[in-house]
Amino acid sequence: MEALLNRFTESGLQIVKRSLGPGRAEIKVKYENEVGFITVQPQGDDIVVSFNVRETLEKKGLEIARTGIRFLGTIITGGSPVDATIYTIEDSFNAALSGDRGYLASAIANSVRDVAEDLKYKIEEESRELGYKKEEFEDRLTSIKSRLLTISEEIEFAKEEGRDVSRIERRYRRAEELCEEAVKDANSGKYVDALAKLEAASRLLDKAEELLSSIY
Questions:
Q1: Residue at which a domain ends, from 105, 127, 149
Q2: What is the pLDDT of residue 184?
Q3: Domain that holds residue 81
Q4: pLDDT tens column, 116-151
Q5: Are 102 and 163 contained in the same domain?
Q6: Residues 113 and 192 reside in one and the same domain
Q7: How many CA atoms does the CB half-sphere of 151 hold within 13 Å?
Q8: What confidence tens digit (pLDDT) does each residue in 27-74 have?
Q9: Residue 76, pLDDT above cutoff 50
Q10: Same structural domain for residues 203 and 101?
Q11: Which domain-ending residue is among 98, 127, 156?
Q12: CA separation (Å) from 110 to 33, 73, 127, 158?
């Protein structure tokens, strides 16, 4: 919402009144002798922005813009954000964009479109970044699981030879626990926490490997 208000201000519109609630926002803007009334409210995965512009007390026209935030649902359900589109309902929205309905209608319509496009870009960037973190997590998890398996085998061999592996086992068990916790974090989308726990597990395994070498 703040981004939309900033766009209005940048376009030279005067924000006369605003009422911001959790389920609905109403904004009144003014430019010269025109007044615009804007309503913003969620509708499913969309955010619907409707507005009308009046010159003095005469109703000049009603424009309704549906600022395609349905791509939020696309990402959540596993679809590609590249397929997301910004769409509108009412042919008159295009007329407002072009300026055929006057400066105020054009400024409002273009602000709505620009904010929607900025939001789409931000979500696509976040989605890509999440993909990178997920790939990094999976690679590191595979590596640590391999090390856990190898160290587990070495511990068993050392036990058979009568060597004291208690210090090694403590580090091994904690690394295993951290690995399990990291998987839970990753499943919840907390990849930063998950990667931090894998790093801690890796350091414990470094020490376990060092101790294994020292007992021979």
A1: 127
A2: 96
A3: 2-127
A4: 888 888 888 888 998 999 999 999 999 999 999 999
A5: no
A6: no
A7: 29
A8: 889 888 888 888 887 777 667 777 788 764 334 444 434 333 333 333
A9: no
A10: no
A11: 127
A12: 19, 24, 25, 71
Q: Say what the pLDDT of residue 90 is.
A: 45
- Sign of the dihedral through C-alpha 153, 158, 164, 167: negative
The answer to whether residue 195 scores a pLDDT higher than 80 is yes
Residue type, 182: A
Statement: residue 82 has pLDDT above 70:
no
Structural domains counted in the chain: 2
Which residue reads 């109703």 in tokens? 59
Q: Are 208 and 168 in contact (CB under 8 A)?
A: yes
Q: Is the separation of the CB atoms in 148 and 184 below 8 Å?
A: no
Q: What distance in Å separates the CA atoms of residue 29 and residue 18, rounded to the nearest whole number?
A: 9
pLDDT band at 92 (very low <50, low <70, confident <90, very high): low
Residues 62, 93: one domain? Answer: yes
DSSP code per residue over the chain: -HHHHHHHHHTT-EEEEEEE-SS-EEEEEEETTEEEEEEEEEETTEEEEEEEEEETTEEEEEEEEE--TTHHHHHHTT--GGG-----SSTHHHHHHHTTT-HHHHHHHHHHHHHHHHHHHHHHHHHHHHHHHHHHHHHHHHHHHHHHHHHHHHHHHHHHTT---HHHHHHHHHHHHHHHHHHHHHHTT-HHHHHHHHHHHHHHHHHHHHHHHHT-
Q: What is the pLDDT of residue 107?
A: 87
